[in-house]
Amino acid sequence: MLSKDGQPLMPCHPARARELLGKGRAVVARQLPFTIRLKDRTHAESEVDGVQLRIDPGSKGTGLALTDEKKEVDEQGAVVTVRRGLVAVELQHRGDQIHRSMQQRAGYRHRRRSANCRYRKPRSINRTRPTGWLPPSLRHRVDTTYSQAARLCRYAPVIEIHIERVAFDTHAMSEGRALTACEYQQGTLAGTEARAYLRAKWNNACAYCDATGVPLNIDHVRPRSRGGSNRISNLVLACAPCNQAKNNTPVEIFLADQPDRLAKIVQQLRTPLQDAAAMNATRWRLTARLSELDKPVHAWSGGRTKWNRSAISLAKTHTLDALSVGCLDHESGDGIVRYPQQVLVVKATGRGSYARTTPDRFGFPRLRRSRTKQYFGYATGDLVRAKVPTGNWAGTWTGRISVRANGQHSLTTSAGRFNVRHRNLRLLQRGDGYGYSSRPEPAEATLRKTC
Predict the structure, then answer these.
(1) Angle between the 136-155 and 274-290 helix axes, to the nearest 10 degrees?
(2) What would the DSSP string read from start to end of 326-387?
(3) Which residues lie closer than 8 Å to 62 by C-beta, 6 or more apart?
(4) What is the pTM of this model?
(5) What is the mean pLDDT of each successive set of 10 residues along the chain, which is 451 residues long?
(6) Greatest CA span in the chain, whole angstroms?
């Protein structure tokens, strides 16, 4: 909620917002996240206690929660701190999509260069990167989390930020057990190399057909094109016929008729470490970036978050983890008394593409893309309300549009997708690179009532 002069006020209940809008005391300032602006009260005339922004970062999704904490007297007469969840936001990243797009672009470039400059010498690696450089897929996670945090600070009186800054021990995760000091100095390939290790592991035989005495290739069990890594646990030996036959087919399909062999190969696979590595690479950068909001930033461990969530028996979600970030003295009676029943799901969709052409499957230009972004006052991604007078979709609909030059725009709603003329549309909110939806939180936990 915003004041008359546009300053953030304390969040209010949806019923209170409907009452203010019905009486004409407020207007809608933004549809998603829904924000109203008062017409009869300034920030100086309001009492603003302030709220806390709590963040639970993740590789694929991040939870954000607005909370307030108050001192209350419990049944025994002791003063305790109670925390209430006011707003919950689940941010879904598209770092994996960015990574796949860059791999595809690199494949296109490699194919063109290998076809046109077959004998060209490789370029020297003399291009430097600035200090603190991150790949685009990781920088996206930091930028989108900061963007949502800045937006919540703009619409709510945030006085401090609490973030979970967790570190993952990838070496111990790879081994599946805790390691001692000296074990950290020796990995899987200690004292050998990858090809010698695989030959000893698979007895100089093909992992798919047990062929021996033939040239053996190194094959990825989970293909690189399907998200597989170069970890030694993802590599096997394969003869040339099996390697070509498998290609990028998932091993579950390639060995569907050999369940025993499939079980032996899958048993060696380990949990991918991409998500853990992404969190380790971005945790300090995200904390430093949030400090640019001019709010006190407090970092907490993941163990404290888990302890708070387990003590109150909350479900495992990013938003409930965000609600549990920070210090709570459960022995003294502190606790969480309320959390939002509905979660605003914010999915990063991007603002379009910089590419001027659409490539075919070989990387060659197939058609030229239009440089015009708006048609008849609308752009792809805008939130609109459509009033369809006739036809199968007659009625009033709200959703996102994909524009066309002829004015027959495509509208995507919860009930389906259909075409609608631009003259039947009304703009509600400009596209901002995110898609919005909602979901309920899991079954309610046993939270004690507020006094």
Answers:
(1) 40
(2) S---GGGT-EEEE--SEEEEEEE--S----SEEE-TTS-EEEEPP---EETTEETT-EEEEE
(3) 55, 56, 90, 91, 93, 141, 144, 145, 148, 318
(4) 0.85
(5) 94 94 95 94 93 96 96 85 95 94 86 73 76 92 97 96 89 72 65 80 91 91 84 89 91 91 85 85 95 96 92 92 93 90 94 85 85 92 95 94 94 94 95 93 63 34
(6) 87
> Which is nearest to 376 in space by CA: 410, 406, 351?
406
Distance linking the first and last C-alpha atoms of the chain:
25
**And the tokens for 202?**
């698979």
- DSSP H helices, 125-273, are 136-155, 170-175, 194-201, 240-246, 251-254, 259-267
Residue with tokens 């904390």: 287
Neighbours of 41 (CB within 10 A): 15
Spatial CA neighbour of 316 closest among 308, 141, 211, 190: 308
Pairing of strands 158-164, 297-300: parallel
For CA atoms 140, 145, 151, 154, the dihedral sign is negative
Identify whether 122 is preceded by a cis peptide bond (ω within 30 of 0).
no
Q: Supply the DSSP symbol for 2.
A: B
Output the CA angle 289-146-328, nearest 5 degrees: 85
Q: Which residues contact 12 (CB under 8 A, 6 or more apart)?
A: 1, 20
Q: What distance in Å separates the CA atoms of residue 307 and residue 65, rounded to the nearest whole number?
A: 18
Amino acid at 95: G
Q: Decide if 411 contacts 419 (C-beta within 8 A).
A: yes
Own/partner long-range contacts of 165-168 (Cβ < 8 Å, ≥24 apart): 165/57, 165/283, 165/284, 165/286, 165/287, 165/299, 165/300, 165/301, 166/279, 166/283, 166/301, 166/302, 167/279, 167/280, 167/283, 168/276, 168/277, 168/279, 168/280
CA–CA distance, 53 with 357 (Å, rounded to integer)? 42
Number of H helices, E strands in the chain: 11, 21
CA trace torsion 123, 128, 133, 136 (10° rounding): -30
| Contact present, 411 and 399 (Cβ < 8 Å) | yes
Q: With contact defined as beta carbons under 8 Å apart, do 366 and 359 qualify? A: yes
Tokens coding 269: 């696979």
pLDDT in tens, 104-161: 888 888 877 777 776 667 667 777 888 889 999 999 999 999 999 999 999 999 999 9
